[in-house]
Design a protein that fits this description.
It catalyses: tRNA(Phe) + L-phenylalanine + ATP = L-phenylalanyl-tRNA(Phe) + AMP + diphosphate + H(+). It comes from candidate division WWE3 bacterium RIFCSPHIGHO2_02_FULL_38_14. This is phenylalanine--tRNA ligase. Pfam families: Phe_tRNA-synt_N, tRNA-synt_2d. This protein has 336 residues and is of the alpha+beta class. Helices cover 39% and strands 20% of the residues. The strands form two sheets. A seven-stranded mixed β-sheet has the order 1-5-6-10-9-8-7, with helices on both faces. Strands 2-4-3 form a three-stranded antiparallel β-sheet. A hairpin with a 4-residue loop joins strand 7 and strand 8. Helix 3 runs antiparallel to helix 4. The chain is elongated, with a radius of gyration of 35 Å. The structure holds zinc ion. Zinc ion (ZN) binds next to loops. Zinc ion binds next to loops.
Amino acid sequence: MDIQNRVDEIHLKFNEDLKKTKLNGDFDNLFLKYFSKSSGITTLLLKELPKLSAEEKNKYGPVFNDLKATQKEAIEQAKILHEIEQVSNPLIDLTLPEKPAETGMLHPLTQVIREMNDFFRYYGFSVAEDREIETVEYNFRKLNLPEDHPATDLQDTLFVKQPDILLRTHTSSVESRILTNNKPPIRVVTPGKVYRNETANKSNSSFFHQYQGVVVDKGITMQNLKATIETFLKFLYNTDIKMRFRYKYYPEVSPGMGADIQCTFCSGSGCEVCRYRGWIEVLGSGMIHYNTLKMCGIDPEVYTGFAWGMGLDRLVMTKFGIPDIRRLYGGGMVYE
Ligand SMILES: [Zn+2]
């Protein structure tokens, strides 16, 4: 028989055998049938190559090699596919009731808030939420923000009813309620939505989320504050994050301390995200002001405490790669 015909015949036979093997999964047997050293069909054909004339060798050498490679690859691939099917599709029982479809997931903000809550619960904090419609007293006065402070201005605050009822401008209002209504020791975190009189754009919204915390007890010092913030930031970012602390002014604390992390995008060399500073401010904190404690009915001669607060929206945007804050609150689907 002509050599080419034999090659074609072997190829056809192999394809038939491969089809059958795909059903029974016995790929090892198929391999042996064609490639066993002593009696494999393709092996025997290849063994004939040295016996051919020089001209035939040139012609059929590549053809034989091609046949061998094609068959081996076909067996290998079919075997892998077969294994995948076995794993993903074990015996299907069509009589079982169908599983309910799983749709939706937690909002990124909710995910982050829950992670943080778990972290602080582990360290003995309670999680407190409170009203979003607040009085001027709890939102400003008890936090050492005097009547003429710029933050109380109409420009920043959304009033529900002038002059006393407003949409809280920070979750520190929860802090002042907790300090007023509880006796130390106090360890509480307060996640929540806050409101400002701002026009929405890519990075600002008229409402956003804050995460604050407050600790009051005997003998609380800056050292406790710093250790808490350090542990927390390591948890939020990673354990080898570089951070620095700076003196800052906030009316409800004294002294105030801002915490920066080294920009994770440029490792401190400067980029658009950090506005070429190399550092990103992530959190404000400080020792609770003497007057704040006093106005909330806690004796500042006996107790001291610290508080911190941070915006959550930017953090969530960075973490999930969300370029526009309005996406966090918009109902529409966005495909990019
Ligand atoms: Zn940077």
